[in-house]
Automatic annotation (TrEMBL):
<feature type="domain" description="Activator of Hsp90 ATPase homologue 1/2-like C-terminal">
    <location>
        <begin position="23"/>
        <end position="125"/>
    </location>
</feature>
<comment type="similarity">
    <text>Belongs to the AHA1 family.</text>
</comment>
<dbReference type="InterPro" id="IPR023393">
    <property type="entry name" value="START-like_dom_sf"/>
</dbReference>
<dbReference type="InterPro" id="IPR013538">
    <property type="entry name" value="ASHA1/2-like_C"/>
</dbReference>
<protein>
    <submittedName>
        <fullName>Uncharacterized protein YndB with AHSA1/START domain</fullName>
    </submittedName>
</protein>
<dbReference type="Pfam" id="PF08327">
    <property type="entry name" value="AHSA1"/>
</dbReference>
Length: 266
């Protein structure tokens, strides 16, 4: 496996994934382009009608490259998907896949989703049964780490962290004890990072937002719809740029705890 996240000159993001397959390019090509095979591994129904691609959900796409059995690419809304097949010396195929998109913080969701799809693709090529569902939350967190999506940023006196989570907003709010938040009192403990002053709550929108005072600035937690099945978390702390490491550790601890909740038996 070989996964990288790159940035284009115009600010879009390119997820690159590579797989070595034991089957020849012609067989892999059929699995990539024929609807009856796509139905076994692609994340939704696909119908290819000339240069138009219709999906089971989301906007239509357009075929932008079709060179059998070497290159196949099409758009899916604003995104672009590209498969390049190269024969290797063993009679198999080197598959190079790229997904170009705008939402950088959704990259781990995309990567874990395609990882699961490629596992199903291999099973299809091998003539085996589809794989059993795996620990998708752990896979997501694996890709957050290897794609470098947990760093956060400082601009002026403001710390900002954006993080895709593996659980929906109501469950995240519950894990944060958000229902215990009261304006004018300190926030529930899960909203406070170690070593960072937490003043009184000044605004609450249940399930969506909590803002509190913090020294000379404020801390704001926001939950919104994310990529995949989880919420998107944005934490913004004004007035203390040195707080970035504390917030990074705190958000990663929260993400790990939520991923553990997603596992069977947790």
């Amino acid at each position: 496996m070989n996964e990288r996240l790159l940035t284009t000159p115009d600010g879009r993001n390119v997820l690159h994934m590579q797989r070595r397959l034991t089957h020849p390019p012609a067989k892999v090509w059929r699995a990539l382009t024929e609807p009856e095979h796509l139905a076994r591994w692609f994340p939704t129904e696909v119908r290819i009608e000339g240069d138009r691609v219709r999906f089971g959900f989301g906007p239509d796409g357009t075929v932008i490259a079709h060179d059998p059995p070497h290159l196949f690419a099409f758009t899916w809304g604003e995104d672009q998907l590209r498969w390049k097949l190269s024969p290797d010396t063993t009679g198999g195929t080197l598959l190079d896949f790229t997904h170009t998109f705008a939402d950088r913080h959704g990259a781990a969701s995309f990567a874990s989703g395609w990882h699961t799809c490629f596992t199903a693709l291999v099973r299809l090529l091998d003539g085996a049964r589809p794989p059993a569902p795996g620990d998708t939350a752990a896979l997501h967190e694996h890709y957050v780490a290897i794609l470098g999506l947990s760093s956060g940023a400082v601009r002026g006196d403001t710390v900002r962290l954006e993080r895709q989570l593996t659980r929906p907003a109501p469950e995240v709010w519950q894990a944060l004890h958000g229902d215990q938040a009261t304006i004018g009192t300190p926030p529930p403990a899960p909203f406070a990072a170690s070593g960072v002053e937490a003043g009184p709550v000044i605004r609450v929108e249940p399930g969506k937002l909590l803002e509190c005072a913090a020294g000379a600035g404020t801390v704001r937690w926001e939950l919104a719809e994310g990529t995949g099945h989880g919420a998107r978390l944005v934490v913004t702390h004004t007035g203390d740029p040195a707080a970035l490491p504390a917030w990074r550790a705190h958000v990663e601890d929260l993400a790990a705890a939520l991923a553990a909740l997603a596992r069977p038996g947790a």
